[in-house]
Design a protein that fits this description.
seven-stranded parallel β-sheet, binds phosphoenolpyruvate, 13 helices, alpha/beta, binds manganese (II) ion
Length: 334
């Protein structure tokens, strides 16, 4: 109730989200308070005037949430991956009129996300909202879930009328990145944000590291810049923004891949050093040039372009490996 009060006081939040039934990776973690929490949400609505939303993962959750007058339902990432569960929820929703938010599935599969939205739509639900919460990636670097912005952008391109909300909390998994991810979502024309908040983040029973206090939340929301489309032709500006967003996402992926390549390069450097082998081997370099340009040609890129990229990569790799060799020399000094 205290968290809800703080959030309501911000004056910038319209919906109060709450996990009453929590899907947890391991058993014996806190799995939510269950039905009694629905009565608390009724109080939140009555006392603070916030709309309420809960995660539903099966037909019983839907029945209970609607019985307690919850305003919006949401389907979590772990449920979106499972068409049986989504269909069960869709069947329970037939003939009901309630907005439903569908989070993206855990892994980057747009078809699965679209499929879940379709199942709910076929049940007669017309107020649908997609929620972008990032995607599992074996190396999401600084994020808990890699944003892969190109996927929600593609969804928006296919379904321009579908409202799209971003959940920076589950993308970041930590609080220091929330502001920039929330801003990025707005810059990509997303329609709203879902952010987790707790009066004492350290004591939160789930995802403690990604919670901000209601005061921090208010600050974060206050700092967001809502940009207007600058061109007179709004459709043009929107399309340009979408495409640029795709480029931003792709460039980020490229950088992550380059970083991985450099890590392997350094390992090779250490291996060569420890086995007293030279850094540069002409045959290997010729093979790289030959195979990469051939593969690039198949993908419609000129051999001149690929060759330039290979030369740059090779130069940087040699520089890194030289550094690795030098480290060893220094170590050997008395
Ligand atoms: C949540 O929103 O609390 C949640 C469990 O998120 P997700 O389904 O995105 O993992
Ligand atoms: Mn969570």
């Amino acid at each position: 109730m205290e968290t809800a009060e703080g959030i309501a006081r911000s004056g910038r939040v319209t919906v109060f989200r709450s996990g009453i039934w929590k899907p947890r990776t391991r058993p014996n973690s806190f799995e939510g308070v269950g039905e009694k929490g629905l009565a608390w949400l009724q109080r939140v609505k009555k006392e603070f005037g916030l709309l309420t939303t809960v995660e539903v993962a099966n037909a019983e959750h839907v029945e209970l949430a609607l019985r307690y007058g919850i305003d919006i339902l949401w389907i979590g990432a772990r449920t979106t991956v499972n068409p049986f569960s989504v269909q069960e929820i869709a069947d329970a929703l037939k003939g009901r009129d309630v907005p439903v938010m569908v989070k993206n599935p855990l892994h980057p599969d747009l078809q699965l996300w679209l499929g879940a939205l379709e199942r709910i739509h076929h049940a007669g639900i017309r107020r649908l909202i997609a929620v972008h919460r990032g995607f599992y990636s074996p190396s999401s670097a600084q994020y808990r879930n890699a944003p892969l912005w190109e996927i929600p952008i593609e969804l928006k391109t296919l379904q321009p009328e579908l409202p799209l909300v971003c959940d920076p909390s589950h993308i970041c998994g930590r609080t220091d990145l929330l502001q920039q991810v929330a801003q990025k979502a707005l810059d990509l024309n997303m329609d709203g944000l879902m952010i987790e908040s707790h009066i004492h983040p350290g004591q939160a029973l789930s995802d403690a590291r990604q919670q901000v206090t209601p005061v921090q939340l208010t600050e974060l929301l206050g700092k967001l810049i809502v940009r207007e489309a600058s061109s007179d032709d709004v459709a043009f500006a929107n399309q340009l923004q979408l495409l640029r967003g795709m480029i931003d996402g792709i460039d980020e992926d490229l950088l992550n891949i380059l970083q991985k390549r450099m890590e392997v390069i350094e390992k090779i450097g250490e291996y060569k050093r420890d086995n007293h082998v030279t850094i540069f081997q002409l045959e290997r370099w010729q093979e790289i040039l030959r195979t990469r340009t051939a593969s690039g040609l198949l993908k419609g890129m000129s051999s001149d372009f690929i060759e330039k990229i290979c030369v740059l990569l090779h130069k940087e790799s040699i520089r890194r490996q030289t550094e690795v060799m030098n480290t060893a020399t220094e170590k050997k000094k008395p």
